[in-house]
Amino acid sequence: MTDLVAHARSLFAPGKGILAADESVRTATKRLASYGIATGPEMRRQYRDLFFGAESIEKHLSGIILFPETLLEKGNDGQLFTASLAARGIAPGVKVDGGTEPFPESPDELITQGLLDLHDRLVEYKKQGALFTKWRAVIRIDGDTLPSSMAIHENAKRLASYAKEVQSVGLVPILEPEVLLEGKHSRARARTVIEETLNALFSVLAEHAVDRASVVLKTAMALSGSESGRVDTPEEVAEDTLAALMAAVPSQIAGIVFLSGGQTPDQATANLAAITKHARSVGAPWPLTFSYARALQEESLAVWKGKEEQVPAAREAFLARLAKVSAALT
Ligand code: 13P
């Protein structure tokens, strides 16, 4: 096994998963504002410290995805975040895409940017302590018309170019083609779109000769759209999610992580537990775990509200959710 494959596999240590704490400045500002927290660079640093400084997170976390600015910042303990995470056995990762923009060929869809200066940035991030990376593409469902196959393919091509570049500098790529929850679509439609998106992705990865063994896939679960008026049972979600994955994902990749995508913390936990169980019964070939942002953070942010005196209670809420989510893996 190469070092890269070993790194990728270590993200799937039993009972552990990934915290996505890589919100861009724009997303972090919006997220914090929704809890009445005014932001700037220092408040964003406190926001990261709230989670990274919580006691014993290494029991449940194999990795944390950072936004590039966080690679250079220190926690309240005076240590670089990257150093204190690595010292606790938590791999620091970094979001390397440059966000989305309208896709010129189909302006209601989005395409992810960030390939132009990627190589030089990767070399820097690696020097700064990153061990793995993430690139997010978004796929929007609108009835039977979207996504277009052009948007699926262009996003797949960019994910493949990203993965190739990342592997060439000796880092692990997480490929995240996120099929969005927003919309009126059925769960069956979400399942079909996830399957189509992943089929396209893995055929483009093969054309680009990307080494599958160190690839980590980050995917949405197959869920009824947020405006469909339907809430799926965990068993329904597990069945359709696994059906899409089994049909499209090669057995050789390092593993699959799930995003929470706007589910409540309880839904994201129950659905992960059902997926874990169903994966065993259908003999899914890859290790599975979580890579959540909102579902792990929400309850804690509602307690914290940016107030220093609330940090202990907010960390307690975070640790309680983290324990529940990692228990969903067993
Ligand atoms: P959510 O769990 O909030 O969907 O975030 C995961 C993520 O990394 C999105 O890019």
Task: Give the helix/strand layout.
Elements: H1 3-10, E1 17-21, H2 25-33, H3 41-52, E2 61-66, H4 68-71, H5 81-87, E3 91-95, E4 100-103, E5 106-112, H6 118-127, E6 132-139, H7 149-168, E7 172-179, H8 187-207, E8 216-219, H9 234-248, E9 255-258, H10 265-282, E10 288-292, H11 294-304, H12 311-327
Parallel strand pairs: 1-2, 1-10, 2-3, 3-6, 6-7, 7-8, 8-9, 9-10
Antiparallel strand pairs: 4-5
The structure holds 1,3-dihydroxyacetonephosphate.
The site of 1,3-dihydroxyacetonephosphate (13P) has 11 residues, from β10 and α11.
Description:
- There is one protein chain.
- The protein is an alpha/beta fold and 330 residues long.
- It has one domain: Alpha-Beta Barrel (TIM Barrel).
- It contains twelve helices and ten strands.
- The strands form two sheets. Strands 1-2-3-6-7-8-9-10 form an eight-stranded parallel β-barrel, surrounded by five helices.
- The radius of gyration is 19 Å and the shape is globular.
- The mean pLDDT is 98.
- 1,3-dihydroxyacetonephosphate is lined by residues 20, 136, 176, 259-261, 291-295.
- Residues 20, 136, 176, 259-261, 291-295 line the site of 1,3-dihydroxyacetonephosphate.
